[in-house]
Amino acid sequence: MTEVPFDFWMFLAGLGIFLFGMRHLEDGIKGLAGKSFQRFIRRFTNRSWKGILTGTFVTAILQSSSMVTLLVLAFLGTGMLTLKSALGVVLGANLGTTITAWVVAALGFKMNIADFSFPFLAVGILSYLFLESRPVLKNIGGFLIGFGLLFLGLDFMKDALDAVAEQLDLSSFSRYGLWAFLLLGLIVTALIQSSSAMIVIILSALNAGLIDVYQSFAMIIGANMGTTSTLLLGSIGGTADKKRLAVANVIFNSSAGIIIFLVLEPLVDGVYSFFKMTDPLMELVLLNTLLNLAGILLFLPFLGAFQSFLKNRFKSAEPGGETLYIKNITAEFPDVALKAIRDELDHMYGYVLDFIYHNFSIGSIAGKPSGWKSIFQTAININEKYDKIKRIEDELTGFYALLQEQNLDKDEAEELTESMLSLRSMVYGAKDIKDVAHNISYMSEGEDPLAQEVLKRLQIFVKLQTEEVYHRNLSTEENKFDLTEGIAKNEEFYKEMIAFLYENIKHHTKKGVPISTMTNVIKQTVSAMNNLCSAIHIKPVENELVES
Q1: Which residues are within 8 A (CB) of 458 and not within 5 positions of it... i.e. 6 or more apart?
Q2: What is the pLDDT of residues 32-83, one digit of tens each?
């Protein structure tokens, strides 16, 4: 018999085409329904078992456990998912990836798959190239290209292996036992960074008769363990949550894989006998599904304890900074990033309100120390609070720059701009008060009765105005806060205060607080309230008011 050389380049081209097809398939689906899946994940992951079902379903559709894991990390960083729910989604994602194997085993070896792929490629490429102005149709084209390339790549790999199937002798390799095949699956998967591609290679080898079902299942177990390298490599230098999920994924897949491997032969025989399967390809994909189901059943009862274990790990990798949410995520998913910015602005409003209340001693319970110690201590606290506000502003501005680089739609771009305008208004409000903080302290510490009365009226004004703005913002649409009305009320108060000040000027002594100082404090306080009104008008705030 004439020896046929192994066409290495044909096999490698097939692998590359398959991986490239996976990328186009993922991008096409993400463009068509990416946000829908993000909302779906957010909504249906409040329980661990829901997280598993959600992870399975979304990964089965998107055919990318890596993308689902990135989404989970984003939601985890913004606080929309607990670590326990995130672990459930990751378990489900492992099961969802088995759909590729089912499709390939059912269709890929039962027909001329190159001919099958051509119509998808033809329609997909033409749509992708000539329907640039129609995003939906272009994304459908990308999806069809990906689908066609998957099967074209599979055809190349299958033909390359079929050509040399009868010439290869793996008996020397087999003498090392099934452990050798497990390690082979693990190493190759870690190198090509795709368990789906590795499973297709294994199915092709099994179909060509190069390996038997036992050896191929050992390689499948290795591939499931090797695919954890993707998240593991991505976690290097990443956030604590990313490291926790990466370690969890390694533990999930390795534990289930080793346990199943120890009973591999009786399990394969049992599945063969119980399901009466005559097609080794279908038996292999069923075993692959059972492997991932075993991982779910093994860890589901212990996800709560596992969450506690992981929470105590990688604390040194917790991101620094004053923000609570944006420091934990990337700008890769704009709607998640915008939700994080909204949450940050809710907290920023609370910080600004706390800073203003502190300056006016609103809600102060403890007795007031006297003398220079009180002034010095208050100044330090006020400066620390203002510095924190500025640091949060800097972090949000930096994140804003990153988010601008993303492909935002019109609504997202408008929301981002409005959020930054709201941020600026809040910071301006804090600065208005900071500029007269020393004057407010002087009025408070002095014995001038007129200054004390002015300060008292300002305290009442600030308290009532901030509470009214907040509660009307949460009320029904008919009673919603109106910016023009709010600013008009502030200006009316300003006129009343100036009139009151000049009406009582004749009783004012030269040793008292200068009139110019008090008018400046009134002016800056009204300006601060105008800025907070503007901030609320642009960006509704959802958090609780500072406790009084």
Answers
A1: 360, 497, 521, 522, 525
A2: 555 665 666 666 666 777 888 888 887 877 666 666 776 777 677 666 677 8
Give the whole-angstrom CA distance, residue 272 versus residue 416: 57
DSSP-based three-state secondary structure for 210:
coil
For residues 237, 239, 241, 247, the Cα torsion angle rounded to the nearest 10 degrees is 10
- Give the residue from 62, 53, 60, 83 showing the smallest Cα distance to 246: 83
pLDDT tens-digit readout, 346-395: 889 989 998 999 999 887 433 344 443 444 444 457 788 999 999 999 99
Q: How many whole angstroms separate alpha carbon 292 and alpha carbon 294?
A: 5
Residues 433/529, Cβ–Cβ less than 8 Å: no
CB-CB neighbours of 511 under 10 Å: 8
How many other CB atoms are there within 10 angstroms of residue 99's CB atom? Answer: 18
User: Is the model's pLDDT at 540 over the cut of 60?
Assistant: no
Q: What's the residue count for the chain?
A: 548
Q: Is the pLDDT of residue 96 over 90?
A: no
In a 10 Å sphere around its CB, with 0-12 CB exposed, 13-18 middle and 19+ buried, how is residue 197 labelled?
Answer: buried
Q: How many distinct helices (H) and strands (E) make up the chain?
A: 23, 0
Distance of CA 251 to the CA centre of its chain: 22
d(CA 85, CA 239): 18
